[in-house]
Design a protein that fits this description.
The chain contains 9 helices and 18 strands. It is an alpha+beta fold and about 375 residues long. Strands 12-17-16-15-14-13 form a 6-stranded antiparallel sheet, sandwiched between helices. Strands 5-4-3-6 form a 4-stranded antiparallel sheet, with no helix packed on it. The radius of gyration is 22 Å and the shape is globular.
């Protein structure tokens, strides 16, 4: 890995060890601001579950880079995204995280009012200003897509190809898009959601998810279910490979007991296997035979990241009221263990011992590709 930015130098130690990013990449507010602008405001990011916005007038406030965005379900059934900013004096329209609109979006400051398609429809004394173009002064739209049952947005004027940047990550990992379509993720129901407030840089969380060199050290429950992870094996680094369940394991649960029935579309060769997918810059998708786990990250500062984790099951499993704790608890523990490790790592990023970075062992070398991806976007 060659230096593309000051502070990143190749390791002279051996070919077994290659350099990481310099510590400043994880602590410097100026670098974080560039990441917000160059990455999170120009990439497709996953921000909400479609099912949470099913009813007409349902809205949700989300964050993308430095921008607040409001998602709203229109009367025509379409889901739209707008910058959460009134065109009059810039007040935020929605301050609550979620809610249900009776009729329109109205600014609480001067009562400028927008319909659910974003058009300016009313304001005090608006009739006395006939030259005000109600379309021109409507809310500013944000590019939006729905995929895997989630809402994806892009703030860029000219968004990158969704097929290449998002679906392409799945194809790169699994070999084809059909492999994930068999899980029917868009038809699954939310069984549990846990929000984690992590005192660590978002890149530490991605790097942690990408490797399993740490699994034997901090994930006893996970390596019991997936024995090959104890060998430091990163399943997502190998195209199409899923980590096999242990021989005496009946399900992807905290104690290895049976979970729910296998999802109907999952093929025999996907059964009893775990697949992990990283969709840069902020989504992890975990596939197991009876449910799907989706992580969505929102970086708030160089040393703070919000992670929302959804456990998705077949609708009849959720509707039955079945106890999902034994399934949820496994990855909840994995999350806690991972985020604790990231929080232990964050202070070291500011140490002079890490001024020029650290090193990656061979089973972590693929993290260097993520570093190169990052540097290309910041260049």
């Amino acid at each position: 890995m060659t230096a593309a930015t000051p502070g990143v130098t190749p390791s002279p130690i051996s070919t077994s060890l290659i350099s990481t990013l310099a510590g400043s990449y994880y602590t410097d507010p100026a670098i974080f601001a560039r990441e917000q602008e160059q990455i999170f405001e120009r990439s497709w990011t996953c921000v909400a579950l479609v099912a949470d916005l099913a009813a007409t007038g349902a809205f949700q406030k989300v964050q993308a880079g430095r921008e607040s965005v409001v998602l709203v379900r229109g009367r025509d059934g379409a889901l739209r995204a707008f910058l959460n900013v009134c065109r009059h004096r810039g007040a935020q329209l929605c301050t609550e995280e979620t809610g249900q609109l009776r009729r329109n979006l109205q600014c609480p400051y001067h009562a400028w009012t927008y319909d659910l398609s974003g058009k300016l429809v009313a304001a005090p004394n608006l009739t006395s200003m006939p030259d005000v173009d109600r379309d021109r002064y409507g809310l500013l739209p944000v590019h939006i897509r729905e995929w895997l049952g989630y809402v994806w947005i892009c703030l860029g004027d000219d968004p990158p190809s969704f097929e290449e940047d998002v679906i392409g990550e799945v194809v790169t990992r699994l070999g084809d898009v059909g492999s994930i379509e068999r899980y029917g993720v868009e038809d699954l129901a939310l069984g549990r959601r846990i929000r984690y407030d992590v005192a660590a840089n978002w890149k530490l969380i991605i790097e942690n998810f990408m490797e399993c060199y740490h699994c034997a050290t901090i994930h006893p429950e996970l390596t019991e279910v997936l024995p090959e992870f104890a060998e430091g094996y990163a399943a997502q680094f190998f195209v199409g490979h899923g980590a096999a369940f242990g021989g005496d394991i009946d399900g992807f649960t905290v104690d290895g007991s049976a979970g729910a029935d296998k999802l109907p579309g999952v093929s025999d060769d996907q059964d009893r296997r775990y697949y992990a997918i990283t969709i840069k810059p902020q989504v992890f998708v975990n596939l197991v035979p009876d449910h799907v786990i989706v992580h969505r990250m929102t970086p708030l500062a160089a040393d703070r990241t919000i992670v929302e984790c959804d456990w998705l099951f077949a609708p009849d499993v959720v509707a039955s009221g079945r106890d999902l704790d034994v399934s949820v608890e496994l990855f909840h523990r994995v999350n806690q263990q991972d985020f604790d490790a990231c929080e232990r790592t964050q202070p070291g990023m500011a140490s002079r011992a890490y001024r020029d970075g650290g090193v990656l062992v061979p089973s972590e070398h693929h993290i260097g590709e993520f570093h190169s991806w990052l540097q290309e976007r910041l260049a």
